[in-house]
Design a protein that fits this description.
Largest sheet: 3 strands, antiparallel
Number of strands: 3
Helix content: 40-55%
Shape: globular
Strand order of the largest sheet: 1-2-3
Radius of gyration: 19 Å
Strand content: 5-15%
Amino acid sequence: MFAVITMYGPMERDLPERPELALLDLLRAYAHDCLHYGSRRRYVDVGGELVRTQYGINFRRVSGRTYSAADPKGSSYTRNLGVVMEGACDREARRITREAAVRTGLREPEDPTGRLAFRDTTGTLMSEDVTPAPLREYADEAERYAEALRRYETG
């Protein structure tokens, strides 16, 4: 398995600047990937070639194309089962991470960037966390991270 772990600080250091946030991020990513990997998969032999015809709740044609059509551009809803599956895995991974934070006594940091990272990994983002803010022309890395998170969370 290959993993990219967020350092929450300068990447040239041997240890993360915020080890507790890096740990929560790693746990959330690992739980998310395990949930995907553990999803039901079905393969069939089509002309001597293995073809995945089911992944989680999403069935596929023998050509590999999903039965679940893409959503219309700009749609405020989804019927695409791949998107639903991704959201379900993300939600559960964040719940697992939130529970781990509670059990180990990890608390939400007071600084804005740490607080945002903690809320992101534990699924406790609030509306003010994802409300777009004007981005300065020369924004620092933390501001760019926050803006990227806002764009991701609001679709």
